[in-house]
Amino acid sequence: MPKKxxxxxxxxxxxxxxxxxxxxxxxxxVTEFGAFRRCRVAWSLSREGxxxxxxxxxMWLGTGIHTALAAYYRxxxxxxxxxxxxxxxxxxxxxxxxxxxxxENLWDDDLANLMKLAELGEGILxxxxxxxxxxxxxxxxxxxxxxxxxxxxxxADDHDPSKVFLVGTADLVVESGDGxxxxxxxxxxxxxxxxxxxxLEQQTTAYMWLLQPILGDRLAGSVYNSIRRRLPRVPxxxxxxxxxxxxxxxxxxxxxxxxxxxxxKTKDYDEELGSLKAQTNPFFTRERVSRNEIELAxxxxxxxxxxxxxxxxxxxxxxxxAMTCPTCEYAQLCKALLDGSDVADIQQRLYTHDPERRxxxxxxxxxx
Length: 368
Ligand code: SF4
What we know:
Elements: E1 26-29, H1 32-38, H2 40-47, E2 50-52, H3 57-78, H4 84-102, H5 104-107, H6 111-136, E3 139-151, E4 164-176, E5 181-189, H7 195-200, H8 202-215, E6 219-228, H9 252-261, H10 270-278, E7 284-289, H11 293-311, H12 331-339, H13 343-350, E8 351-353, H14 357-360
Parallel strand pairs: 1-4, 5-6
Antiparallel strand pairs: 2-8, 3-4, 4-5, 6-7
């Protein structure tokens, strides 16, 4: 008698309990703590929902990649294939159409740059799929872009209007083969994440703190899904009809493809192919981060202290610094506030109001 096929049990999606946040409570988003420490002027403008129309290219690209990966992993969770490159193409076409229609003059000279970024995003996602395909089989997706909230131990009485809630949207929650759960954060950046930074990184810990009551001991930590904003280089063909031996940052599959495309012999490039095969991928990495109870408790204390400051109407003053100001999206407005220029005019021409963007924008700290 033929054996009955055994169906692999599907892990149910994570049920995120609804949290009743009183209207008078203070809500602090996970990404706000860093922004508050960096510069209170920039933090308060973003909290008011004011944003530059002309966004940093890295933010624009990061948001598009997050959108595409959300669709891709949602498809995995629901058992329906979704192509992230296609999602990204639809996203950037809609974005570019909207921006050019709304800000025709402002965006004229930026259109070519946006098109280049769109091409870069599609390339990044194609290579990501190539790299992540095998790795993704090691986990099951439990939740995608799920919103979590937890009350900080500040004004702990249920009827206390001075309560402070931490909220955050996790890119992914996954289960590894051993049954442990991980909260995954996609990060697009110029270079791959520096491991020394992860030891102290606060946002990752904050997500773990948010998910702790829901997942308990099942929660093993965070996965930092680092995505570089660069494409592998294709080796050049020299005038002698061979591949250039100049050192480039690329991958095994791109190099091999170039050999085939130029009609060359793989055996002439054994050494290059061998070392590319042995290298770790220079464009993507997944780093696991765990935090112990002491670290989570320390973070809770520090977030509570900052939560109280934010709740209690903090003084707002600029933190002018060569590190933060050159890339600050409020630089023009800030300068006007400081030098007496026409603030209203600058605000009207260069900024827009979007109170929802903070919760939608998953690329907020993507510029590392
Ligand atoms: S330009 Fe500098 S001081 Fe002004 S808001 Fe931005 S970070 Fe703060």
